[in-house]
From TrEMBL:
<dbReference type="InterPro" id="IPR050316">
    <property type="entry name" value="Tyrosinase/Hemocyanin"/>
</dbReference>
<dbReference type="Pfam" id="PF00264">
    <property type="entry name" value="Tyrosinase"/>
</dbReference>
<feature type="signal peptide">
    <location>
        <begin position="1"/>
        <end position="22"/>
    </location>
</feature>
<keyword id="KW-0479">Metal-binding</keyword>
<protein>
    <recommendedName>
        <fullName>Tyrosinase copper-binding domain-containing protein</fullName>
    </recommendedName>
</protein>
<dbReference type="GO" id="GO:0016491">
    <property type="term" value="F:oxidoreductase activity"/>
</dbReference>
<dbReference type="InterPro" id="IPR002227">
    <property type="entry name" value="Tyrosinase_Cu-bd"/>
</dbReference>
<feature type="domain" description="Tyrosinase copper-binding">
    <location>
        <begin position="93"/>
        <end position="317"/>
    </location>
</feature>
<dbReference type="GO" id="GO:0046872">
    <property type="term" value="F:metal ion binding"/>
</dbReference>
<dbReference type="InterPro" id="IPR008922">
    <property type="entry name" value="Di-copper_centre_dom_sf"/>
</dbReference>
<keyword id="KW-0732">Signal</keyword>
<keyword id="KW-0560">Oxidoreductase</keyword>
């Protein structure tokens, strides 16, 4: 199966000019870099122990907690879209508004200096929306990639029960997953429609968009937001899990003392023959989760990216002297050429979910600025 169209192997920042800024860390308390680090003292309430939220490993949550989370996502899919239907017919409900927003901003917030902090706040917005729209008050879960790598179908995440994130797709033998002339993966254990768990029967609304649009900075195709309904598919891939998302790869990324190297280890290298931790996780699941533009259509996107944020947060805590480092430009793959980001560069926004253009500085710590959360276990 030729799958270069949906390749996430290009999720690296290796081709971008580097700009590193770092501020010394006074310690590793609730706010590792101190409230005075942020540009607007008093703009946000302090993150105190009575306010802090704890994000949890999905597999460690009680079945009722897991079901409450997936029930809230399904609830979000019953809420009407707030987007202009003449421009975005693929936005069939509020959940798909998130997917459309991600497509609209993909060329700015991937392969760029915005990647880590933009996605951090995007997940935070969705967490808030689950509470406000659907009354979800539980933990925002992460999918622990290496902990499930040897038994995907047996994990709580993918066992297909009503307490999972749904299971694999129906098996369809359509050959290996070809990402480039230099990289292909063996076919996984699915490939077809997901028919178990809380997202059985889910209809996705957007077709994959070529990765070339991202790498070359090309405009989105005119058909990007046309309604293109099909069943949610998955192709759970043990090879990808064991090769790219193992504990050795995890600790190699956590131990590196350079943000550029960290980015390469989590995302791979453009045109390279290997994936990274984060890109590998997308290919554990298969299309549409492995399509960089439209991946949000699969609800596994949220626990997958909570794990990415956990990895980034853990790297920051392990390297307090580098915790405020930034790297990259303002456009994907620096196409078209753009300025290097700094801590005071404003993000391109998050659509109607939040029209504010927070700076990277605002979003650099999970216990300062608009955030007040940490993870149950430091990686």
């Amino acid at each position: 199966m030729v799958n270069a169209i949906v390749s996430l192997a290009a999720l690296a920042l290796s081709a971008l000019p580097a700009l590193i800024e770092a501020a010394p860390a006074p310690g590793l308390g609730p706010a590792p870099w101190g409230p005075s680090f942020f540009g607007s003292p008093g703009k946000y309430p302090p993150c105190t122990e009575d306010r802090i939220k704890i994000r949890k490993d999905f597999d460690s949550m009680a079945p009722a907690e897991r079901k409450a989370f997936t029930d809230a996502i399904n609830c979000m899919m019953t809420k009407p879209s707030q987007l202009d239907q003449t421009l975005y017919p693929a936005a069939t409900n509020r959940y798909m508004d998130y997917a459309v927003t991600h497509v609209n901003l993909t060329q700015q917030v991937h392969l760029s200096g915005f990647f880590l902090t933009w996605h951090r706040y995007y997940g935070h917005l969705f967490e808030q929306d689950l509470a406000e729209q659907c009354g979800y008050t539980g933990a925002f879960p992460y999918w622990n990639w290496p902990a499930t790598a040897d038994n995907l179908r047996g994990s709580a995440v993918f066992d297909g029960s009503e307490y999972s994130m749904s299971g694999d797709g129906i098996y369809v033998d359509d050959g290996p997953v070809v990402l480039s002339p230099f990289l292909q993966l063996p076919h996984g254990s699915g490939g077809g429609c997901v028919n178990t768990g809380p997202f059985a029967g889910l209809q996705t609304t957007m077709a994959p968009i070529s990765i070339d649009n991202l790498i070359a900075g090309l405009p989105l195709p005119d058909t990007a937001f046309q309604l293109n309904q099909t069943c949610l598919t998955r192709d759970l891939n043990t090879y990808a899990a064991q090769r790219y998302c193992n504990y050795t790869a995890l600790y190699e990324a956590l131990d590196t003392d350079d943000l550029l190297t960290f980015d390469q280890l989590i995302n791979g290298v453009i045109g390279g023959a290997e994936l990274g931790l984060h890109s590998g996780a997308h290919f554990i699941v298969g299309s549409p989760a492995s399509s960089i533009f439209v991946s949000v259509q699969d609800p596994i996107w949220w626990p997958l990216h909570a794990m990415l944020d956990n990895l980034y947060t853990s790297w920051q805590l392990r390297h307090p002297d580098l915790a405020t480092a930034v790297y990259g430009t303002e456009t994907a793959n620096n196409a078209p050429p753009s300025a290097n980001v700094t801590l005071d560069t404003p993000h391109p926004g998050w659509g109607y979910f939040d029209p504010n253009h927070y700076t990277i500085r605002d979003l650099i710590s999970t216990t300062s600025g608009p955030f007040c959360y940490k993870y149950d276990v430091a990686l």
